[in-house]
User: Fold this.
Amino acid sequence: MSHAEPRVDAMKPAKPGPTRTAPPRPPDGFPSQGNYRAYLAFAFGGFFLMTVSFLVLRAVWALGNGEAAWNQLQGSFQNPIYVIFHGLAFLWLTWFILRLFRLFPATQPKRFGPLKRPPDAVLTAGLSGVFVVVTLVVAAILWGAV
Amino acid sequence: MRRMLLVLEPVIWLLFSAGMMIGGLLLPAWALVMGVAGPLGIASTATSYDHAFALASHPIGRLVFLAAIALPLWGGAHHLRHLWLDFGGLKSDGLVGALCYALALFGSLAAIVAVIRL
Amino acid sequence: MAEQQKKTIVVTRFDPDKDEAPRQQRYEIPVEPDWKVLDALNYIKDEVDPTLSHRWSCRMAVCGSCGMNVDGTPKLTCKDPLSDYGDEVEVTPLANFPVIRDLVVELEGFMDKLQKVKPFILRAKELAVEEGPTRQSPAELDDFRQFSMCINCMLCYSACPVVANEPDFLGPAAIALGHRYNLDTRDQGQKERNDVFRDDGGVFACSYANECSTVCPKHVDPSGAIQQAKLNNVIDWVSGLVLRRGGSR
Assistant:
C-alpha cells in the first residue's frame, strides 16, 4: 500500500492532544484502486458533458448562420478525430448515466408523501429502460426516421 | 470567491443534478447520430440543413436544444471542479470553481441566443 | 495432524517519543482458520510483543473501536476474516486521521465535527410529561432507521477522498447522523442543522465517491444520506426564499 505524503491535516482536532501525532495519510489506493477509478471516471464524464454540449451549441449556432455554415460544420465533423471523440463520448456518457441510475435509488427519500420508494433494483431498471427508450426516440428523430 | 460559490451552492447543485440527467439522457443519442453516423454518411437526412433546421426551430425543438446545451454544461462544470478538488486543489478551488461556472454561464447565455436567433 | 498455518502480519508502529515517522514491523505468527484480523493482533500483543497498541472492545461489531486499514481497505477487524487474505497481511491505522500511537488514531477531530450537526432531538419546546409520549409510526421510524445504525467506527472517514482534501468537511458519519435527526418526526431542529449542512465543509462538499457506503460494516449507506441531505437542504433553502419574500410583503 502506498504511504503518500499527507496533503492537508485531515481530521485534526480543535485542541491538540497531550502527545505529538503522526500526520494523517490520504486514503490507501486513491486514485488507482477499483472503486475510486470508477468514481473518477464518472466525474470525468463532466468533461464529455461539457464538450458535447458545446458542440451542440456550435451546431445550433451554425444552423442560425445558414446552410453554408451548417454544411461546413458537417464537413469538419468528418475529421476522424471528431468521429472518434463522438464515439467515445457516446460510450462514456452511456456508462455515466447507467452508473448514475444505479446510485440513484439511495439518494432518494424512502417515502414521497404516501408513496413508498420502489425497490432499488426496480427503480434502477426502470430508469435504465427510460434511457434506452429516450435514446432510441431522440436518435430516430435526429436521424429523420420519424 | 469560495464564499460566494458557497452561497450559490443550492442553485448550482440543482443545475448540476438536472444537467447530469438531461445530458445523460439526450447527449449520447446526439453524439451517436450527429457525431458518428452522420459524418460516416449513414444518416444523410440527419446532416441535411433543412431537416436539422426544421427540428431545431420548432418551438419544442428550441426548448429541448436549450436544455440539452445549457444544463449539461452545469453538470460538467461541477464535476470538473470536484475532480480538481479530489487531486488536492482546495487552495485554488474558488478560482477553478468560478472559471468552470463562468464557462457554463457563458455557454448557457450563448445557447439562449442561439435558439432565439434560429 | 495438519501443520499449523503461519502468516506474516505487517503492522504499522509509531511511538511518538522515539519514532520520527510511522514504520512497519513484521510478525510471523501461527494462526487458526477461524481467526479474524483482530485475533491476530491480540495474539501479537499477548504472546509476541506487548508494546503493540491497538483499540478494541466488544469483538462483535457493535462498539466500533477496532477499525483499521487491512491491506489498504478500511475494515472492522473483529469481523474481518484473516482467511480472506494471503500469507502476508498489512494492518495500518485508519487513513485520514492523525496517528497517536501504532494503530491508534486521534478521534477528537471527529467529535468536534459530530457536535456541529447536533445529533440529538431538538425541540422548540419540550413536551410536559402530562402531554404524553410523542408518537411515531413504524413507517416514520423506517425513514431514518438505517442511518441510526452507525457505530462511529470511522471506516467511512478512512475511505473518503474529500475528507483527505477538505479539513472542514463534516464527513460521512456526522452528516448521516445529522440527517437521521432531520428525518425524525419528533425532531424540530432541521433548520438549525441545515444551516450547518449548507456551510463550508457541509453536505455540498461531498462529491459522491460512494466509498463510505462501500466500506460501511453496518449498511448505514452514509453517501445516500448525504445526497438525501443535499436535496432536503435545497428544498429547505428554496422554501426559505419563498417564505422570506412572502414575509416582507
About this structure: Residues 10 and 37 of chain B are 39 Å apart (CA to CA). The mean pLDDT of chain B is 96. The radius of gyration of chain B is 17 Å. The interface with chain C takes residues 2-3, 6, 9-10, 13-14, 82, 85-86, 88-90 of chain B (CB under 8 Å).
